[in-house]
Write a structure and sequence with these properties.
Number of helices: 13
Distance between the termini: 79 Å
Structural class: alpha/beta
Radius of gyration: 27 Å
Largest sheet: 6 strands, mixed
Strand content: 15-25%
Number of strands: 20
Length: about 425
């Protein structure tokens, strides 16, 4: 483009930045400057400056403007593709900058706010990178405050999603009974995507669903590499916790999980819980984990082959399943076998949930934590005192570290105690 063609655009941009009004109707071969103006079809720069203007090509500056392709700057604007700057704006694809705006992927900055990655914030807030909290809609303001305190964060530092009872019903209807779903939504979650290490889970005040049950179930949903905290200000069973965790993960990671896998995950949690009623949580989790690993690792899809695997693994764990429980597990595994899972990513989580592999892993993690620090992120920041002296906690990672008995654990492991 010739230098003489660039100068008018540069001058117009400077004038807009400086707040100098532009003359309506002034035109140039490369752009249009003025209220409600549209660029010529042969415009080389594709630029447009003015209030209420529209652009199909490159850039637009002005209030109330719409951009179909690249960039828009102005209050109340909408963007279908890349970036938007302005108060009260909405974005369908990548980024949005404006007060009270919502961001689905990249960045959002409200008035006086800064965002590093995937966040939704209010005025004057600074949001941490990729961390999302979900709160049950039926919690009081005081209870919500206690959850932020327990998580070791605040409403200004993370994006928060309110999980409604309708959300729980949507995820669990047809899988859980109305009694199991319950009349209210109270469980909360805090999720942080990570680069490696599988899924690590800590729970607080969940008196039935364990951290291992949740971690195993989340692998079925298609989740990988994240730290998860599922908690409530008071004791609940935890069967509804999965809804908030999945919603937080999808928002924090920007990944939309397969609906069929999410349904299978919900079914796995309920099936594990049903079996746990008769054989205990640890045995039930171990059986489901081992059957799932074999089905995925060996590519089993035939009901008879899956049934044989169930029988063998149940016997290895010294439990007897009823015919109904066996059929439940076989049906669940048939659904899981339809999906393409990363076996290595799956094992990053499942191998450390129970059994000897978990003991060895905990010993190694204790040593590593003592010498080089922990990579357990938000799991290390919880404040149990915020939930009172009677809080019930459970975790798939060893939080004790070196100071709380590493030598004793090593000694017990090798002595068989």
């Amino acid at each position: 483009m010739k230098r003489t063609r660039i100068l008018p655009l540069l001058m117009a941009a400077v004038m807009v930045t400086a707040g100098v009004p532009l003359t309506a109707g002034a035109t140039d071969a490369q752009g249009t400057v003025g209220e409600g103006a549209a660029p010529a079809a042969d415009s080389e720069a594709g630029a447009q400056i003015g209030e209420g203007a529209t652009a199909e090509g490159e850039t637009q500056i002005g209030g109330g403007a719409a951009v179909e392709d690249e960039t828009q700057i102005g209050g109340g604007a909408t963007v279908e593709d890349e970036t938007q700057i302005g108060g009260g704006a909405t974005v369908e694809d990548d980024a949005q900058i404006g007060e009270g705006a919502a961001v689905e992927d990249e960045t959002q900055i409200g008035e006086g706010a800064t965002v590093e990655d995937d966040s939704k914030i209010g005025e004057g807030a600074e949001v941490e990178d990729g961390k999302v909290v979900t709160l049950g809609e039926n919690l009081s303001e005081e209870q919500r405050a206690s959850m932020y305190e327990y998580f070791g964060t605040s409403a200004d530092e993370v994006e928060t999603i309110i999980v409604t009872h309708a959300d729980e019903v949507k995820y669990m209807e047809g899988i859980a009974t109305a009694e199991q779903i319950g009349p209210s939504t109270n469980s909360c979650a805090y999720v942080e995507p990570t680069e490696s290490g599988g899924i690590k889970v800590k729970t607080a005040n969940l008196n039935f669903v364990t951290s291992a049950m949740i971690a195993s179930t989340l692998t079925t949903a298609g989740m990988e590499n994240c730290n998860v905290i599922a908690a409530c200000p008071f004791e609940v069973s935890g069967t509804g916790a999965l809804t908030g965790i999945i919603m937080a993960y999808e928002t924090a990671s920007g990944d939309s999980l397969d609906e069929g896998q999410k349904e299978a995950a919900m079914e796995e949690l309920m099936t594990t819980g049903d079996i746990a009623d008769s054989v205990g949580q640890e045995k039930a989790t171990e059986v489901i984990k081992d059957v799932k690993t074999e089905v995925i690792d060996e590519g089993l899809t035939d009901p008879e082959e899956i049934g044989e695997a169930v029988d063998t693994i149940a016997e290895d764990n010294e439990i007897t399943l009823t015919d109904e429980q066996r059929d439940q597990v076989v049906s669940l595994m048939q659904k899981i076998s339809q999906y393409d899972y990363d076996v290595n990513a799956l094992k990053d989580t499942l191998d450390n949930l129970t059994g000897e592999a978990g003991v060895l892993s905990n010993i190694w993690n204790s040593v590593k934590t003592f010498f080089v620090g922990s990579d357990d992120g938000i799991l290390n920041d919880t404040n149990d005192e915020a939930l009172g002296a009677d809080v019930i906690t459970d975790s798939t990672v060893n939080e004790g570290g070196f100071k709380d008995g590493l030598i004793t654990r090593i000694k017990n492991f090798f002595s068989g105690e």
